[in-house]
Hints:
Layout: H1 10-26, H2 42-71, H3 76-99
Helix pairs in contact: 2-3
Amino acid sequence: MSEATRQLSPEQVADAVAALRKQLASAGVSDTQRVDCSGETVEQGLAKLVLGLIELLRRLMERQAIRRMDGGSLSEQQIEEMGNALMKLEQKLHEMAGQFGLRPEDLNLDLGPLGRLLE
């Protein structure tokens, strides 16, 4: 039997998981938050991941808009339109999070050694 087709016992799997956790702990990686993908909460877990990434992109767009404003490359009308669009996007994001029972702080995903997704 090849290594790829070998069956592992539950004890072997538990030992392997314990060894991996020990390696992660020695590398300074704490137990990370996980997206819950059980049958009952798969929609909420997926929504948390997707909305967290959208929030990251929204914040990046906001920072870029501020840089462009400070650089003087936007007209007053463009600043107004961009501000309104970013506010509507934030409002819609919070509305969608609420539909899945998520709070704004739930969108801040833990990326392990990279830290939190959002500041």
